[in-house]
Amino acid sequence: MPDPRRVAVLISGRGSNMRALVEQADGYEVALVASNKTEAEGLAWARERGVTTWALASKGLGKEDYDRQMSAALDEHGVGTIALAGFMRILSPWFVDRWRGRILNIHPSLLPKYRGLDTHSRAIEAGDRVSGCSVHVVTEELDAGDVLGQAEVPIKPEDTPASLEQRVLAAEHALYPKILSEFVKR
Ligand code: GRF
After folding, report:
1. Is the minimum distance from the CB of 143 to ligand 1 under 6 angstroms?
2. Up-side HSE of residue 137: CA atoms within 13 Å toward CB?
3. What is the pTM of this model?
4. 165 — alpha (psi -120 to 50), left (phi > 0) or beta?
5. Nearest of 79, 56, 76, 74 to residue 66 by alpha carbon
6. How far apart are CA 18 and CA 43, in angstroms?
């Protein structure tokens, strides 16, 4: 069995949650940062810190072919747990099954509210007084697996989606490392 404390973080962009996971690693090690975007900003940050990276553009590859290659890379690095952090690809059923129960994601809403995109504008438009973020287990259904932890963030009357996003992100950066740390110790 691979070691659950060896974590791969999957990103597509700036990777602010990935940075938080690296900087606050407690009881786990970020063994690999992987991306479907070879130019992802977060990859350069990880490399500079000596974290191993893997990147493969998905263009021209079938979904499952891509996921099989990514899975092989995770196996090569002895990964036991996967943390999605702004990874903008829907994983194939094959991949979810192969890694079942070992993939976590951070989502910027209080699930089960606002699955999918544009969570902050949807919360503001609905007149919600509180938003937040959730760490959940990844299943075949988008943003629908068991919730492992949440943090609430009050919505202010003057909030825009951008200002709310900033405060929710700060909450994400505190929540994700804590929940991942608890998860790998189970
Ligand atoms: C965050 O809002 C996270 O909740 C969502 O994607 C965004 C990733 O941001 N899943 P970053 O790349 O971690 O900065």
Report:
1. no
2. 13
3. 0.97
4. alpha
5. 56
6. 10
Of the candidates 171, 138, 139, which has an alpha carbon nearest to the alpha carbon of residue 152? 171
108 lines ligand 1 (CB under 6 A): yes
Here the tokens at position 44 are: 């350069």
The first and second tokens of residue 146, run together, are 């068991």
Residues 117, 120, 122: CA angle, nearest 5 degrees: 75
- Give me the sheet containing 6-11, strands edge to edge: 53-55, 29-35, 6-11, 81-84, 103-107, 130-137, 147-154
Digit-by-digit pLDDT tens for the chain (186 residues) are 899 999 999 999 999 999 999 999 999 999 999 999 999 999 999 999 999 999 999 888 999 999 999 999 999 999 999 999 999 999 999 999 999 999 999 999 999 999 999 999 999 999 999 999 999 999 999 999 999 999 999 999 999 999 999 999 999 999 999 999 999 999
Instruction: Find the helix packing angle between 161-185 and 16-23, rounded to 10°.
Output: 40
The C-alpha angle with vertex 19 and arms to 104 and 67, in degrees rounded to 5, equals 45
Residue 25 near residue 98 (C-beta atoms within 8 A): no
Which mutation among 30, 82, 91, 172 tests ligand 1's pocket best, with the greatest number of atoms within 8 A of CB?
172
- Angle between the N-to-C axes of helices 16-23 and 41-48, in degrees from 0 to 180, rounded to the nearest 10: 20
